[in-house]
Amino acid sequence: MIEITDKVYYVGVNDRNKALFEGLWPLPNGVSYNSYLIDDDKVCLIDAVEVDFFVQFIENVHEVLGDRKIDYLVINHMEPDHSGGLALLRKYYPDIQVIGNKKTFDMMSGFYGIRENTLEIKNGDTLDLGHHTLRFFLTPMVHWPETMMTLCEGQKSILFSGDGFGSFGALNGGLIDSEINTDWCWDEMMRYYSNIVGKYGIPVQNALKKLAGIHIDYICSTHGPVWHQHVEKVVEMYDRMSKYETSSGLVICYGTMYGNTERMAEHIARAASLAGVKDIVIYNVSKTHHSYIIRDVFKFRGLIVGAPTYNTGLYHEMDVLLSEIANHDVKNHLIGWFGSYAWASKAVNAIGEWNEKRLHFEQVGEPVEMKQALTPEVKAECERLGREMALKLLQA
C-alpha cells in the first residue's frame, strides 16, 4: 500500500497499453488513473478508475481496508476513465454512498443507470469523516460541466483536483513528485492541459479564484504524479496557461508533398533565427501528431503555417490542424502563413479564411505564395516573413 500522508492512500492504477487517450492523443509513456482512499472513522474513496483495471483497483483497495466497508465515494469527474468502475464497485460495497453535485448524478444515471444512495453537495459544503473534513468546490467546465474538486483538511491539506493539474504518463514506481525525477512531467502536463483542458481557460481561472488563499500541501490529480514539492509551480503553470500567456518562441508547421513547401519553411525559420528568435520548432503536420504541435502552440506566441493546395483546397492535415487550434479557442497569438500550388492557387487564401473566421490571431507580414518551385524571389519573401515575425516577437 502507498500512504501519501495521514492515512490517505493511493489506490490507483497504471495503463501502459492504451495507444491513444480518448482515441485521440498519443500515450508513448502510458497514463495513470489515480484513485485515493481516506481511512478514517468514515472511509471515503476519492474517484475510481477505468473499468478495464477494476481487478487491480479492488485489490489495492482491499490491501488498505481488508474487510472494512467504504462509506463514501466522491466522484469529482464523471468521465468513464474515472467512473467506469462505479457499477462494479457497488457490487462489492452495496451500501456505499456516492457524493457529487446535481450534474454528477444526471450523468451517473445516464451512463450507469444508478440513481439511489447518493448525497448531493453544493459549492462550499463540508463532510466530516472523523479526523478529516472534506470541503467541496464546484469547478464546472474544468473540463466537463459536472467537474468539482475536493479539499481534505486534516494534519495536511490535500486537494483532490479531478483532471485539473493532471499529466500524461504512467507512474514508474514513485508517486509523489518529491520522490521522482520530474523532468518529464512539465511538457507532458502542458500537453495534457493543451489537448484536454485548454479550451476552457475562463473556467480554469474561475476555479483558481475559488482556491486562492487556501494552503495546499498536496495536489492529488486523477492523472500523473501527486504534487507536493512543486505545488506552487503547478498552480502557476495552470494560471499562466489558462490566461493563454506564452513565451516569445515560434512554431512553424507545414504540409508538403514533394519537399518544395518544406523548403519555404526552412528559409522562414533560418531568417527568424538570424533575426534573434532562439526558440523555434518546426513540424511536418503529416509526420508529427497534432497533440505535440498544439502543446507548443500553447507554449509559444508565434505561429507560421504553410501548405500546398490539394484537390483545389487546403492540404488535408493542415486543414485538420487549423480546425483543432480553433476548437481549442487559443488566444493572443501572432500568425503568418505561406502556401504553394502547381496549377490552382487555393492554400494561401484558405489559411487566410481560417484566420479571419475562426482563429482571429494578429497577422504578421504578407503571406508568401509559391507556384511550383522555389525561386530567388520566393526565397526572399520567405526570409522577409521570418524576419517580420521575429521583430514582432522580440518587441513583445
From TrEMBL:
InterPro entries: Flavodoxin/NO_synth, Flavoprotein-like_sf, Metallo-B-lactamas, ODP_dom, RibonucZ/Hydroxyglut_hydro, Rubredoxin-O_OxRdtase
Top-level taxon in the UniProt lineage: Bacteria
Record domain Flavodoxin-like: where: 250-390
One GO MF term attached to the UniProt entry: metal ion binding
Family: In the N-terminal section; belongs to the zinc metallo-hydrolase group 3 family.
Protein's name in the database: Flavodoxin-like domain-containing protein
Taxonomic path: Bacteria, Pseudomonadati, Bacteroidota, Bacteroidia, Bacteroidales
